[in-house]
Design brief:
Distance between the termini: 39 Å
Radius of gyration: 21 Å
Shape: globular
Structural class: alpha/beta
Number of helices: 12
Strand order of the largest sheet: 13-12-11-10-6-9-8-7-14
Length: about 400
């Protein structure tokens, strides 16, 4: 079932960005995602902490000179005063800037789309949650982009419909190999900040990709974590944060799970994979082959469900742009999150509530992710002791 996503009909949302300037990877991804369904216009930015680079980046991207800022506080105040000021901002900085930048824009009444993980620590995350509880006029989204994949939406709908029965076991893994050596010591920007506790927080690999795995398992299964036991390791000599994580999970209600996340597993690029097993059947999905979902009803042959193909449900179809057989993946997953947020913003413009099928990760996912990271660190420091979350 393919529905397409050309549903922009009430005017584009004026979008700003913090971070994402020259030399940044994720900023370009967010800008592409925001434009894919013609829902946003990128009009302002504080694109770097370096004033010279911020100005050069803004000019390179075609921003008007008076909409190029060198400080996000200045940007929030100035844009809030403009009749044509931004309605939403994307925050695509290292983790230590997420919460202070988000707070500045929330206080200015501007919707926030923030990269993950949410914060530097759980205390920051809860402070942001408290602010959002006061500012109910502001929409907050967290870009766990894998939750936007069509077959993930299909899997989630199957769990809700009871096709798997009661969930018993969930497993997730996310192996990479890009930090197998001390890449951060070469000056590589992405490696440098992700292995720096001051900019990344207490979790390295477990924060960067472990949170993706954890969020996806919870999103699909509907489970809530109760406690965990973790073994975090920094295999590369001198590395300050973990580059490999093994985590056992116990969920409320009795389900059990495991997560393996690694950035030192040669031969792996972005091998995110989840498995969900219940009393009636099981599901398996791989991010590197995202248009396919394996479903096995207990006692029956394994079935392959394809994106846009026979058996694909309406939840997946609404996230689908092209016919089956044409690959959709990473950028489209981000775009689906952006378009869901756009639907919520446009509903708020009109003084209405979003339609019931609008769904995207938010502050609750962010706080849960930070609690997961801190519990993993605490457990590992205590030699894998079970820790309540």
């Amino acid at each position: 079932m393919v529905s397409g996503r050309s549903d922009a009909n009430t005017g584009r949302i004026r979008l700003g960005m913090v971070g994402g300037g020259q030399g940044a990877f994720i900023g370009a991804v967010h800008r592409l995602a925001a434009r894919m369904d013609d829902q946003y216009d990128f009009v302002a930015g504080a694109l770097s902490a370096d004033a010279k680079k911020a100005k050069a980046s803004g000019a390179e991207l075609g921003l008007a000179p008076d909409r190029i800022y060198t400080d996000y506080h200045e940007m929030a105040k100035a844009e809030a005063k403009r009749a044509d000021g931004i309605e939403a901002v994307s925050i695509v900085t290292p983790n230590n800037v997420h919460v202070p930048a988000a707070m500045a824009f929330i206080e200015a009444g501007i919707h926030v789309i923030c990269d993950k993980p949410l914060a530097l620590n759980l205390k920051e995350a809860k402070a942001l949650e408290k602010l959002l509880a006061k500012r109910k006029d502001v929409i907050f989204a967290l870009t766990h982009n894998y939750s936007g994949y069509p077959m993930i939406r299909h899997a989630k709908a199957m769990v809700v419909a009871g096709d798997l029965g009661d969930i018993r076991v969930v497993q997730g893994e996310y192996p990479q190999d890009w930090l197998t050596t001390a890449l951060e010591k070469t000056g590589q920007k992405q490696a440098a900040w992700r292995t720096d506790p001051k900019r990344s927080g207490a979790g390295g690999c477990v924060g960067d990709i472990g949170t993706h795995t954890f969020q996806l398992l919870c999103d699909v299964s509907g489970l809530t974590l109760d406690e965990l036991a973790a073994d975090l390791t920094s295999f590369v000599k001198g590395r300050l944060l973990d580059d490999n994580a093994h985590v056992m999970l116990r969920f409320k209600g009795g389900a059990k799970g495991m997560i393996w996340a690694s950035q030192v597993a040669p031969g792996n690029e972005n091998g995110l994979k989840i498995r969900v097993y219940g009393t009636k059947g099981g599901l398996e999905w791989r991010q590197e082959d995202p248009n396919y979902l394996w479903y096995t009803p207990f006692g029956e042959p394994k079935r392959l469900i394809t994106r846009g193909g026979a058996g694909s449900n309406a939840a997946a179809g609404r996230m689908t742009r092209v016919p089956p057989g044409h690959p959709e993946g990473y950028l489209e997953g981000f775009a689906n999150v952006y378009s869901e947020v756009a639907r919520a913003i446009k509903a708020k413009r009109a003084g209405k509530k979003p339609e019931k099928d609008v769904a995207f990760p938010g502050i609750a996912d962010g706080v849960a992710g930070m609690a997961f990271i801190e519990a993993c660190v605490k457990s590992s420091e205590k030699n894998g002791k079970w820790v309540k979350v």
